[in-house]
Amino acid sequence: MAVKSKVILLIDDDLDMLNYLRKLLENVGHTIHTAQDLKTAQHKLTTVFPHLVLLDINIEDENGFTFIDEIRKVDPYKRIKIIMISSLSSKKALATSKNYETDGYLVKPVNNDILLTTMKKISPNLGFPEANKLERNFAGVMCKLIGNITKISEVKLTFRSKVKFTEKQKLNLNSAFIDKLEIDHAQFIIQKPSIDVSPGVYDTEAQIIGLNDNDLKEIRKIKTKKG
Amino acid sequence: MKQRKILTIDDDEDVNNLISVILKKNDYDYRTCEDIKEYFSQVVQYQPNLCLVDLNLGNFEGFGFGIIETMRKKIGHDMIIIVMSRRSKPEDINRALECGANDYIQKPIDENILISKLNIFLEKNNDDISFPDRPIPGGDQDATFEIPMNITSISEKSIFLYSRSYIAKGSLISLHNSFFKGFKFGVQSVTLNRELGGYIIEIHVDKEEHTELLPEIRKMMLQCPPVDED
Amino acid sequence: MPKVQVDSELKEILPTFLKNRNTDCVKLSELLANKDFESLKKLGHKVSGSSGGYGFSELGDIAKKIEISASSQNEEEIKNLVDQFINYVQSVEVEYV
User: Fold this and answer.
1) What is the distance in angstroms between the Cα of A92 and the nearest Cα belonging to chain B?
2) What is the DSSP letter of A128?
3) How far is C41 from chain B (nearest CA, A)?
């Protein structure tokens, strides 16, 4: 399943142009977002993070260029591709565009062929490289899984899950049953490795610590196998 | 065979005597003391594996909590410390655990509970004194648990995470941090990573299910510096 | 006559336990006379924690009540309970099992 569909942000104060570009690009299979002014463009940029921006440089008194700086603020390594659209083929516009190091230039009126050819050319390069060095606050994550607590005693419990534990560790465990027994203040420590039950299924013993006599009473109320 | 030396500190002679009888009966080596100074000197001399500490030592209420903190600072975190107290409120128990105790036993001491806990902490398997397991009815078994992981790489198609514990392929997981906010994924593959001493878990990003996540992922990918650049 | 069944394993240490309880009787009377409620509370707390293990749960209960009434500084109640404590210690019969 190739991810050929890309996310494209169209910025142009000309509504007809926007609709035209949108229709064409959506037909090719891309996801389109639009903005008719730079403020909206800024908002869309920082909520969508598109692969490609089609930017009308004449927008807001020929200030479209300034938006390129905004893009670079969220994209310091220049991975978002930028195609400028201009209603002039003035030398000034062309020169400025060269200074800004973008990925393409379209002159209005844009026709289907030119647009599609440009898209064809740029498509293989759309997309960002895999991120491997993540900031600590994004990299750390808690993974929640479900399990079944199958038995319990005054000193330990056993639960079945798809996780095989091998190290001693404190376990963050929650269940309605534990709440019902009112022992949710207790801590659970895994002291020994999980046991294989069947491929992908493991039984893990967790020591229960921090129980007072009342808690023990509650646990003793649960029937044993013989009881 | 792992050693089983227990050091008890309680200013009540009768408690110390009772514990001594229990420990002797169960083949544990033990020493007892009644004050803090003697305790610290015994830790050095006797080198116990586990300490039973009365939370109510000394003249001040709550003195015991400070003692545990001091103990941890002086003897480190390898020593197992079980506190004993008549108090039973969850707040008191938690405070003891937060100060560095490994577990808590309510007074008056129940021999079976004490020995069971010692056996577990000191990895002695004694099936004679063990509390019977009580099966939990099927309808009450549902539980959730959490394990910490680290994202090693992320793209719009898949995410790789590092986990110290093995998670079977096909497991359903949900990820939680300021970024992931509980999105669910299925484990696609699990690979052993000997270097890191754990496993690399692969999960896939689904365009429909994880639509809200994709812009966040792209944002992260944009901010991540290239690997090859010097 | 209160009777207590004590585990024969505790034979060696029981004399010390009883001796200490006798000392407690003297202490309790002293503390009561001096209206030292704080110390009464501590002593009650302490004895309630050790008695149960020896099989003297009834005594432990009395001690716990002493702790509680010392907290509320109820002199009459404390006197009542201290009397109960002393009576118990002086008349208890021990049977080893």
Assistant:
1) 31
2) -
3) 11
List, for residues A25-72, the tens digit of each pLDDT value: 999 999 999 999 999 999 999 999 999 999 998 888 778 888 999 999
Q: Do B18 and B105 belong together in one domain?
A: yes
Query: Alpha-carbon distance A219 to A122, whole Å?
Result: 66
More confident residue, B88 or A54: A54
The residue range of the domain holding C59 is 3-96
CATH number at residue C72: 1.20.120
Q: Which domain holds residue A68?
A: 7-134
CB atoms within 10 A of CB C71: 14
Same domain, A37 and A113: yes
A216 touching B (Cβ < 8 Å): yes
Which of A204, A200, A140 minimizes the C-alpha distance to A171? A204
Q: Six-digit token pair at B132?
A: 């019977």
Domain membership of residue A72 (yes or no) is yes
Q: Show Cβ contacts of residue A45 under 8 Å, excluding neighbours closer than 6 positions.
A: A9, A53, A70, A71, A74
Instruction: Choose, out of A6, A80, A135, A143, the residue to mutate when testing the contact with B (most B CBs < 10 Å).
Output: A143
| Domain annotation covers residue B160 | yes
| Residues in A 12-31 with any Cβ partner in B closer than 8 A | none
Instruction: Give the residue on C whose Cα is nearest the Cα of B105.
Output: C49
Tell me which residues of chain C, numbers 30 to 89, contact chain B at a CB-CB cutoff of 8 Å.
Answer: 45-46, 48-54, 57, 60
Is B107 a domain residue?
A: yes
B72 belongs to a structural domain: yes
* B103 min Cα distance to partner chain A (Å): 5
| Domain region containing B93 | 5-121
Last residue of a domain, one of B105, B121, B137: B121
CB A180 within 8 A of CB A190: no
pLDDT at B196 over 90: no
Answer yes or no: is A177 within a domain. yes
Q: Do B14 and C48 touch (CB under 8 A)?
A: no
**B88 vs A48, A137, A213: nearest CB:** A213
Residues B22-58: tens digit of each pLDDT: 999 999 999 999 988 899 899 999 999 999 998 877 6
Same domain as B208, residue B109: no
- What pLDDT is stored for residue B129 in this prediction? 56
- Residue B210 CB contacts under 8 Å (≥ 6 apart), including other chains: B183
Give pLDDT < 70 ranges for chain C: none
Joined together, the tokens standing for residue B127 give 């099936």
Whether residue B210 is predicted with pLDDT greater than 50 in this model: the reply is yes
Q: Which of A73, A101, A134 is the last residue of a domain?
A: A134
Residues B110 and B195 in one domain: no
**Is B111 a member of any domain?**
yes
